[in-house]
Amino acid sequence: RPVRLSEYRPSDFLIDEVHLDFRLDPNATQVTARLRMRPNPAGDAGAALKLDGDELKLVSVAIDGAKLDAEALDVSPESLVIANPPRGAFELEIVTEIDPEANTRLMGLYRSNRSYCTQCEAEGFRRITYFLDRPDVLAVYTTRIEGPADECPLLLSNGEMIENGPAGEGRHYAVWRDPWPKPSYLFALVAGDLGVVEDRFVTMSGRDVALKVFVEHGQEHRALHAMESIKASMKWDEEAFGREYDLGVFMVVAVSHFNMGAMENKGLNVFNDKYVLASPETATDGDYANIEAIIAHEYFHNWTGDRITCRDWFQLCLKEGLTVFRDQEFTSDRRSRPVKRIQDVRNLRALQFAEDAGPLAHPVRPQIYHEINNFYTPTVYEKGAEVIRMLKTWIGEDAFRAGMDLYFDRHDGQACTIEQFVACFAETSGRDLTQWMRWYDQAGTPEVTVRTAYDADAKTFAVETQQITRPTPGQPEKRPVVIPMTLGLVGPDGADMPLIVGGAPAEPVFTLAEETTRIVFENVAERPVPSLFRNFSAPVKLDSDVSDEDLLFLAGHDSDPFNRWQAVQTVALRHLVAAAAAVREGRETPVDPRLAEAVGRAFDPEERDCAFAAQVASLPSEGDIAREIAQDVDPDAIHRARDDLKRALRARLADALSAAYARLAYDGPYSPDAASAGHRSLRIAALDLLAAGGDAEGLALAMTLYKSAENMTDRVMSMQVLSLHAGAEREEALADFAGRYGHDPLLMDKWFLIQASAPLPDAVDRVEGLMASPAFDMRNPNRVRSLIGAFGSGNPTQFNRPDGRGYALVAGVAAELNSTNPQVAARLLGAFRTWRALEPNRRGRAETALRGLAGMPNLSPDVRDIVRRALSPD
Ligand code: ARG
Ligand code: ZN
């Protein structure tokens, strides 16, 4: 029963208006839905009316006021079929009863800390009432909520409140109306007793918008940063995209039980509290940055998602890729553009490239799915955003902006496809984007090989490229994609040389649309160093013949900051791959002093941009090295090689590191701004190298920082450095942290995560022990992700233990969550996405764990889908 894009059909019925009436009760909430319906002219005229449900209990059904008998219906918890509905407009009234308290799956209406809240994307609305629960059915919603006034003083839904008052017996009600047609996945309801932070925003056309952030009582001071982020997002979307907010109120609610990051419900965004709550005493620089980015992401969905939504779930990247692109741009404008680019590319490679190289690979727009919840992936989100960024690079800024304007103008109020989106840019750029569509339909990371040759006599520089995309599940054959390669030729003086091709000046963006391409630059007076894929102009894996020496020249001279960073990473990665192979053969690999020097430059007193320098100083991750090795991967050898390099860097750079650590000390009040955060991150990078190999002096510095920390970044980061090295310091810091912050679940999550990801042989035992600790709670997804998720995805040596205990641990937790929260269970199994690349022993043990799960009775569709795909032959 998979769903296929090729089988899309319009709905046979439409719903124009929805009236919902909720009688809240923890175990028996009554939902009355009155739906104004009519046959869809684009549908099948004689069709039965089939509504979606999920674990629903039907109370009654009526059409135009007349109750339907059981014979007229075919009803189950999963569907409601009316064989012969009216063939003109009619009103359908459905009464269902649901149990929010028992809803551990956190989809539909559920309770979290005594509050009611909803999560409907993708298919959660059908857990509230029977409905045409598909994104191309758009209706105007009016929602009446009735509940106990004492327990639920707050009754919220989408749109604006139009009425409220007492409802007798200590109960009260509120009626909300959302004038903007929307699909059911954007519906939201929140009821409870929460504190609020309020502010206002006046839009560019003068609309006065009330802003409200709801959090648990006593947490209001931790909602101020979220509020500032809302205002900044609203302003930015007006300036950057001409998009204005369209209701009189915009609300954000923080809840502590949430399967994902946040949700863009119209006018009423519901957030994981982790992405709302921040105060200088409790949040790290990273928390502040995440909150700002996720608030922006959800707010930007108001146009890219809510006003223009997706026709079907295959088009998910239409809203997600685009909205990630928009939030990346927002952050780039507010903080450092190059640093944001580097962070995004690190993240893309770590998550999306890994996904694309393994059994879970799928196109940005999948063509088939068994469980849509498993497609909220790095490929749909992050690669989806890259494809849009690349389109902008390829057609140019002006055609891109015009295309966005056209898209908003033409498709406002519609449920759209990727074709409709891309057509806007074909129109404004005048380019043929037919081949471009392969980026959406073809999975896998293209690999581009570049070979260069300088001809000193002819004064030409030739760049030859070749692209291949390896087979992925279901796609054995791949065709070339359109790859924009932004390039510069850097002369011996470090300046860019003019680009002359075919006798004329050329733009720096070159198109690689065929399997091979040859570009010959003319009038090249001296041998240049090519700077390839500047600013990471395409999401590809690059293999070039540019030497380490030339790369290190770029590291010091390239006008493109991304490639200055990339150059050092590439040289380090080449070393680490060789070193990991050497470790397995019992050899050593000397570190090129020039690499050490390049890393050392990050700590130069002259270095102005600390955040950028910190990126230069952080080596490729163990995952980066594993991906580069690609097969027969030995995580222990990789860890050892990376550790050896850190130690060698420490030995060579000790004085510079100590000096930088001392010089970068600071005092004064905490501010999470990008410059201050960058300063702290560079200091921590120095500390991390100083403590390499468990160096006693380095650990002593880390301990001093831990104890004297005046902000949460220093405290958490110093604890993290300490926790990498077994010993008394580590235990002292961890115990101290638990003593100080044991009452704060979000801080305990950091404590869980740091222990779960420490590459020490006791990790499995420790995680098992922590699962029994009072601060842990298997029903809270944040706890599960911080402990089990971090272990599976952030601890390569211990998850991949040769004895298989790491796999068994994660698979065991997934099995446990399979029935209570299948979505979270399936997510945890993402840890297995690269299992096929492992050396034979580990591969065998990973497979055993997956086969064990596959054989379990009552597997949820979510877990079954991941296990089945993970095990599918490659
Ligand atoms: N649309 C939400 C966002 O802003 C995420 C929803 C995730 N839903 C899911 N079923 N996993 O990205
Ligand atoms: Zn989103």
UniProtKB/TrEMBL annotation:
Its cofactor is Zn(2+). It catalyses: Release of an N-terminal amino acid, Xaa-|-Yaa- from a peptide, amide or arylamide. Xaa is preferably Ala, but may be most amino acids including Pro (slow action). When a terminal hydrophobic residue is followed by a prolyl residue, the two may be released as an intact Xaa-Pro dipeptide. Its EC number is 3.4.11.2. Residues 444-544 form the Peptidase M1 alanyl aminopeptidase Ig-like fold domain. Pfam families: DUF3458 (PF11940), DUF3458_C (PF17432), Peptidase_M1 (PF01433), Peptidase_M1_N (PF17900). Keywords: Aminopeptidase, Hydrolase, Metal-binding, Metalloprotease, Protease, Zinc. SUPFAM superfamilies: Leukotriene A4 hydrolase N-terminal domain (SSF63737), Metalloproteases ('zincins'), catalytic domain (SSF55486). Residues 548-871 form the Peptidase M1 alanyl aminopeptidase C-terminal domain. Residues 20-186 form the Aminopeptidase N-like N-terminal domain. One of its GO terms (molecular function) is aminopeptidase activity. Residues 226-438 form the Peptidase M1 membrane alanine aminopeptidase domain. The keyword Hydrolase applies. Belongs to the peptidase M1 family. NCBIfam families: pepN_proteo. This is Aminopeptidase N. The lineage of its organism: Bacteria, Pseudomonadati, Pseudomonadota, Alphaproteobacteria, Hyphomicrobiales. The gene is pepN.
